[in-house]
Design brief:
It contains 3 helices and 3 strands. By secondary structure, the chain is an alpha+beta fold. The protein has a 3-stranded antiparallel β-sheet. The longest helix is centred in the first third of the chain and has 10 residues.
Length: 68
Amino acid sequence: MSKYNSLWEYVQKNGNKSFKLTFDEIKGIAGIPIDHSFLNYKKELTEYGYQVGKISMKEQTVVFNKID
């Protein structure tokens, strides 16, 4: 079980084609802050039908895109 499972389930249930979450929103959903290891874990999201798009350190946001 991944430390980001709750986030991946949230993204899957969202159902939108593309949407953006802030780092703070992700912390609230996942129960942990985003850290550098997120880059390694993000590949797990494809099992849920999504992929991580742009990660903006400046805006502190992550874009999630549905895989067609």
